[in-house]
Specification:
With 77 residues, this protein is mostly helical. The protein has a domain of 51 residues. It contains two helices and no strands. The longest helix has 35 residues. The protein is elongated and about 55 Å long. The two termini are 29 Å apart.
Length: 77
C-alpha cells in the first residue's frame, strides 16, 4: 500500500491551521485574564503569564509554519 504524501501534507496543513486558530483564540482569552488579574492585583497573575508565554510560543511556531508553507508553494510553481 503506497502512501500519498500530498494527501497527508494537506491533512497536516489543515490540522496545523485549526490548531493555530485555536491557539490564537486561547491567546486572546489568556491576555484578557492576565490583564484582569493584574488590575485586581491578584497573586495568581503569574499563572496567566506562564500561559501567555506558552501561547506566544505556539503562535510563533504557527507563523513559522505559515512561512514554510508559502515557501513550499512557491517552489512548486
Amino acid at each position: 500500500m503506497k502512501k500519498h504524501p500530498k494527501k497527508s501534507n494537506v491533512a497536516l496543513v489543515v490540522l496545523t491551521h485549526v490548531a493555530c486558530k485555536r491557539a490564537k483564540e486561547l491567546d486572546d482569552k489568556v491576555q484578557d485574564k492576565s490583564k484582569q488579574a493584574e488590575k485586581e492585583n491578584q497573586i495568581n497573575w503569574w499563572k496567566y503569564s506562564g500561559l501567555t508565554i506558552a501561547t506566544s510560543l505556539l503562535l510563533a511556531a504557527c507563523s513559522a509554519g505559515d512561512i514554510d508553507k508559502q515557501i513550499e508553494l512557491e517552489q512548486e510553481k
